[in-house]
């Protein structure tokens, strides 16, 4: 009985974490470049239940031989193993702001490959993002909406000589006096990227392969790839599963109460 009590409780905790992930997706449905997350739920190892017994053998000393009879498997609960971002391309929408950039990803050599803008966070570390909602700060640097420096191909912050510039389809910033290649990073397995706050990812990346292609679009933003309708449906399913486990937990609690208050008196 106690084992079933903890199994139901683990189901409630798993559904609660899944609900939190889905709620975060809904909250970021309008965040440019946001990649929806999916919680993966995994079962704990199963236990094989067996009935233990013995039988007497027809021997002079009447010895007993231990026997076992399989009953079946017992599941010991579930847990959220990890959350995995979905790197499917979001919708590209026009903003007509020259500081907004969108990576339209074409063919890449790896199934889970992905391209990113390269930025520098507050600690000076290199991070990656698909959110191209950029602006030019007071010192003329191209920065993200959170104030992180956007980096060029050599890993240096991009300083403009004015607010008027254009970006070519292959990611070259052209001003009156400069040609600056944007720092576009590539990873052959985006599922290994670690998601941080403010639309940033950390992980191992390299140069864009020669057989990969993309198009940089100025005045456009990549939208979130959250499917709001599907996510709301999944939230309702998670809530129902939580309620189901809650009812099971309540039943076990009532059974334990009867065992203590009624059977215990007998």
Notes on the structure:
- The chain is of the alpha+beta class and 266 residues long.
- It folds into two domains: 107 residues, no CATH class; 132 residues, no CATH class.
- Helices cover 23% and strands 33% of the residues.
- The strands form eight sheets. Strands 7, 8, 11 and 15 form a four-stranded antiparallel β-sheet that branches. It has a three-stranded antiparallel β-sheet with strand order 12-13-14, with no helix packed on it. Strands 1-4 form a two-stranded antiparallel ribbon.
- A hairpin with a 5-residue loop joins β7 and β8.
- α1 packs antiparallel against α2.
- The longest helix has 36 residues.
- The model has no long low-confidence stretch (mean pLDDT 86).
Overview in brief:
This protein is 23% helix and 33% strand. It is of the alpha+beta class and 266 residues long. The model has no long low-confidence stretch (mean pLDDT 86).
């Amino acid at each position: 009985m106690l084992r079933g009590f903890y199994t139901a409780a683990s189901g409630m905790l798993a559904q609660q974490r899944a609900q939190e992930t889905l709620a975060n997706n809904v909250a970021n449905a309008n965040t440019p470049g946001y990649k929806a997350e999916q919680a993966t739920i995994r079962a704990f190892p199963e236990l094989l239940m067996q009935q233990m017994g013995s039988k007497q053998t027809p021997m002079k000393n009447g010895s007993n031989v231990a026997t076992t009879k399989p009953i079946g498997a017992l599941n010991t609960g579930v847990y959220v193993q990890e959350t995995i971002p979905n790197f499917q391309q979001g919708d590209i929408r026009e903003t007509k702001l020259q500081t907004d950039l969108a990576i339209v990803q074409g063919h890449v050599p790896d199934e889970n490959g992905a391209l990113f803008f390269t930025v520098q966070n507050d600690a000076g570390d290199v991070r990656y993002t698909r959110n191209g909602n950029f602006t030019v700060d007071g010192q003329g640097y191209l920065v993200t909406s959170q104030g992180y420096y956007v980096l060029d191909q050599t890993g240096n912050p991009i300083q403009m000589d004015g607010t008027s510039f254009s970006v070519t389809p292959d990611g070259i910033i052209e001003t009156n006096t400069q040609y600056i290649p944007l720092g576009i990073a590539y990873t052959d397995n985006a599922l290994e990227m670690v998601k941080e706050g403010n639309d940033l990812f950390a992980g191992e990346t390299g140069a864009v392969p020669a057989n990969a292609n993309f198009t940089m679009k100025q005045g456009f933003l990549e939208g979130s790839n959250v499917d709001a309708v599907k996510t709301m449906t999944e939230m309702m399913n998670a809530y129902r599963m939580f309620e189901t486990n809650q009812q099971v937990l309540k039943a076990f609690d009532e059974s334990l109460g009867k065992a203590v208050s009624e059977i215990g008196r007998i």
